[in-house]
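Case study.
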Amino acid sequence: MRLSRYFLPVLKETPSEAQIVSHRYMLRAGMIKQNAAGIYSWLPLGFRVLRKLENIVHEEQMRAGHIPMLMPTLQPADLWRESGRYDAYGPEMLRIRDRQDRDMLYGPTNEEMITDIFRSHVGSYKDLPMTLYHIQWKFRDEMRPRFGVMRGREFYMKDGYNFDLTKEDALHAYNRHLVSYLRTYERMGLQAIPMRADSGPIGGDDTHEFLVLADTGESEVFYDSAVTDLTFGDRKIDYDDHAQCAGVMEEFTNLYARTDETHDADLFAKVPAERQRTARGIEVGQIFYFGTKYSDAMGATVQGPDGKVVPVHMGSHGIGVSRLLGAIIEASHDDKGIIWPEGVTPFHCGIVNLKQGDAEADAACQALYDSLTALGLDPLYDDRNERAGGKFATMDLIGLPWRITVGPRGLKNGVVELTSRRTGISEELPPEEAVARVAQVYAGLHVRGI
Amino acid sequence: MRLSRYFLPVLKETPSEAQIVSHRYMLRAGMIKQNAAGIYSWLPLGFRVLRKLENIVHEEQMRAGHIPMLMPTLQPADLWRESGRYDAYGPEMLRIRDRQDRDMLYGPTNEEMITDIFRSHVGSYKDLPMTLYHIQWKFRDEMRPRFGVMRGREFYMKDGYNFDLTKEDALHAYNRHLVSYLRTYERMGLQAIPMRADSGPIGGDDTHEFLVLADTGESEVFYDSAVTDLTFGDRKIDYDDHAQCAGVMEEFTNLYARTDETHDADLFAKVPAERQRTARGIEVGQIFYFGTKYSDAMGATVQGPDGKVVPVHMGSHGIGVSRLLGAIIEASHDDKGIIWPEGVTPFHCGIVNLKQGDAEADAACQALYDSLTALGLDPLYDDRNERAGGKFATMDLIGLPWRITVGPRGLKNGVVELTSRRTGISEELPPEEAVARVAQVYAGLHVRGI
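After joint prediction, the assembly is written out as follows.
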């Protein structure tokens, strides 16, 4: 993309309404614009990242054998009356009446609807195990929406639902989700720690939240520091292997890590003192096993191998896709702006032309642009007639991990400058080598763009 | 995908509520499920096609230089009060009151919101031309929703908006959209004819609708039969070239083609009698130029090269993405089921195992599956323990363009059967050749899946 043809409305001033750094930078970098309290437009740069996160979530869910589909944003109230949650849900549910005076709602979650779909079409244990998921806009009418996309009202979320014949199978689905989530967050450059959590209005006993450590997190968390040494890495997973998934679950949850909701001071005291940590965390996902709560209430049953009709065991599992942008920025920035992890960056590399209009500099930039594009990478070429300082400030603010700077002086010596946004370290090298270096960084990291 | 691990709830009976063939087949093929009047879930097979259409639209819009972003589904009423449309819109607008008693609405279209974004961030002619678009769920509270996704209430639509300094530039944007739409529909296997249309509540003088001819279309159309001989083909387009885009516009709109809304009997009479046609058509897109209607009302201005502040010239341009599924099926089916055009098929090829459990047949199917997958294709392997007749009926119903049938008898002779869904013609050939043939069909047609 050439910046002169893009829509990147960066702001010089810090918007006064933004209290946390991710909100400030998303506004300043022209990623979002507020349209109403807690309701945002995703401007082109923000949309690119959102779509990348969505694509990573799809890839990892499909890899785990989960089946993508899509449910609508609006739901009939009657479904929620069946489960008893229509009256229980409180004012955060946005209730709507249509022109025929039917009670509708903007879905905050989809347990009822997916259970209805399941009971309409599935009747035999032979169709199990089954996990269906979707990524869709949801609405929670927060009393005090704030922190930008971190606590918006209209938000984008992946929610998946498993249907299993037995509790054991459902707990495998739970573990499978945990494994796929660990992979997902790591691909996004995030360390998200599973912590035992409270089930809230979804119901159920087994539940873990995934928390990203950040000073601006909404939850207080208590953990054994050894938990932050764990990494998922590139281990090979057979998602059908119950023992392997249970092993990962065990490995990532046996150390103490809890939010304030479930914190147990006595248990925490048993963690070696030098490893006891208190911090704040941002919730970026949650998994639940809730047994037959919804299948009982809504009659979602299957005939088992013995001919007996039994309610299915279910769980639900969510990743807050839009809030992840905020979480990633909270975890990865400096005082100049965002620092995107390579796995989710909106553009792979910036190209800064120090002397736009200089024939040689223009040609060198264009050649870099073409080479990177031919390798399947998306460069952002700042081809505007602006001063170098302004171009650098914009690149730093929007946080592309790599920048190639091209100027007449370097070109005389046959070199351009390759700069890492994270370390700030620059290196002079021939253009072909700069391209090769950038390509090498992204090898194996490839995520679909829009 | 192995069918035994998929969720494909095909129906044997024809649902009584479905009046048109696309609605019937989408229900029978397990593509959609109605959740409320005019509100549907996209079951896994339907979602695959929806996502492919979405990806084609993105690819062609970006190719034309249009910039993707995303606006929210809910909008504040105040924006619509500025343009005067809040009161004018009528009961098809779904009006919502949030917990703070603020008037909101579920967006049926986005002229106001995009104009607000533009005026907040753009002030100079130097940032023009600019076309922003998004693909988002919209809502129209139809009195009588029907025909499945063809006239749903919650629907998925691409809407794009151009901002230009002059009327001439805006008309180029109009032509650019026409060109990109012709390409888009052809990639989807559709012939969509641009017809002079009526502007309706959006306003404006210049507008064309794109119509797909089908007996079940909602509009009566009148056209010169020569218009159906035009094809876009693989011509190279420079979307910055005003003359080239105007040439395509001229070529595709100078023959008589109008809907009943704009039909002119006297003009039609001048078409040679043997080329006069009357038919029905399904609207799958529309482009508008409406000048400064919204920029005047909402103060969207730029400073021109002469320093004078002028309102921008705008247009809006839409493709009904979810309704396209219905239109494609209406245009491409037979009495056994859907026939997907190769460009949009949910899976590229079916594999039918005639004797599941037979070691040789199972191994041959798995090898085909692996070969196709390694080539980047998505096969659907019917590995269920079902009779051949049932497997064929399912494949015919869901409409994959190619099917490979594997049975012990053929394998003895070293062959499998490759069948075209469209022609019904089968050929026996070695498995490697069947794979090569399928790969050849899809070469150059590659569209991203989910």
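Observations recorded in class. Chain B has two domains: 18-338, 349-442. Chain B touches chain A through 60 residues (CB under 8 Å). We will return to this complex in the next lecture.
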